[in-house]
Design brief:
Elements (H helix, E strand, L loop, with lengths): L2 E6 L4 E6 L3 E8 L2 H15 L15 E8 L3 H6 L3 E4 L2 E8 L4 E13 L2 E13 L2 E12 L4 E2 L1 E9 L2 E9 L5 E12 L2 E13 L2 E2 L1 E2 L4 E5 L2 E5 L1 E5 L2 E7 L8 E9 L1 H4 L12 E9 L6 E5 L1
Antiparallel strand pairs: 1-2, 2-3, 3-4, 4-6, 5-7, 6-7, 7-8, 8-9, 9-10, 9-11, 11-12, 12-13, 13-14, 14-15, 14-17, 16-19, 17-18, 19-20, 20-21, 21-22, 22-23
């Protein structure tokens, strides 16, 4: 049995959905047809990757919500690859007046096909003039790999997204740490790594402070991306300042295990040194990859 009850007055709207596998309640003053545009405008206040696009004017929208996905036989019939589910909960609120966005979510355990996620916690909230976010997952695994602890966190403010990605091993020792920024500049998205927070397979690595990967409507540019440690390098560089110029990739005594070691399952570990180079060209048509490794 599925029950949907909607009420609307001059002061508030409510929507309540109840079923064996899903319960949802929304209360506030909103129009379902306008929420998407309102949210898009609010997100653009923090990060706008298309600043010249005209924003759709929308009247004020605000609401609180609660959503619970429950373990019920019906949901397994609707999603055949779903093998196990512990109740998923989402709560939060939104107000377009001050662009306030709050979201808390939890997934105690989810098994989909051969993939298992255990104890995932999502938290999004306003902090001063920024939008802060955090996703922590205690364990992700399937037959090929296992990630005992994964954390992604940061904030978004004034067209700059700060990010920190941390992976720990089964003994809670930091194995990978990658931090940096994603910036929206003139319609381009520019990704950079923070040289002071770069750990690969337990070891600190260096990278040029001016490293950048720029992706936009006109194309891709990579500059000063020289990842190095004790004579080992991966160097990625566009051959000119022009977007979509061929990208050269050089390997110097680089151990594959540096990147593949995030896989915890020992029988899937790869190792070996790589020397040589590769090139990617024709980026704006049909990319062509050539290598001599």
């Amino acid at each position: 049995t599925i029950s949907i009850v909607a009420k609307s007055t001059a002061l508030a709207n409510t929507l309540s959905l109840k079923s064996p596998f899903l319960v949802a309640d929304i209360e506030g003053k909103y129009k379902l047809s306008k929420i998407g545009n309102a949210l898009s405008n609010s997100i653009a206040k923090y990060y706008d990757n298309n600043p010249i696009a005209k924003k759709v004017a929308v009247e004020n929208q605000y609401f609180n919500f609660k959503i619970a996905v429950k373990d019920d036989p019906i949901i397994y019939k609707l999603i055949p690859n779903l093998k196990n589910l512990e109740p998923i909960n989402l709560t939060g609120n939104y107000n377009s007046v001050n662009d306030s966005i709050v979201l808390q979510g939890s997934i105690p355990k989810l098994v989909y096909g051969e993939n298992t996620i255990t104890n995932a916690i999502l938290d999004v909230a306003n902090k001063d003039s920024a939008l802060a976010y955090s996703l922590i997952i205690d364990d992700i695994q399937n037959k090929q790999f296992q990630l005992p602890f994964t954390s992604i966190s940061g904030k978004v403010e004034r067209n700059i997204l700060d990010y920190t990605v941390q992976l720990k091993d089964a003994k809670e020792k930091e194995r990978f740490l990658i931090a940096g920024t994603l910036k929206s500049i003139d319609g381009n998205n520019e990704v950079s790594l923070d040289p002071s927070n770069l750990v690969l397979n337990y070891e600190a690595w260096k990278i040029d402070a001016e490293n950048v990967i720029s992706i936009g409507k006109k194309g891709i540019y990579v500059g000063d991306f020289d990842l190095s440690k004790a004579g080992s390098h991966i160097i990625v560089q566009s051959e000119s300042k022009a977007v979509n110029a061929p990208i050269a990739i050089d390997f110097k005594t680089f151990d594959i295990n540096t990147l593949t070691s995030f896989v915890e399952k020992s029988d899937l570990q790869l190792s070996g040194k790589i020397n040589g180079n590769a090139k990617v060209k024709d980026l704006n048509t049909k990319p062509l990859f050539t290598s001599d490794l």
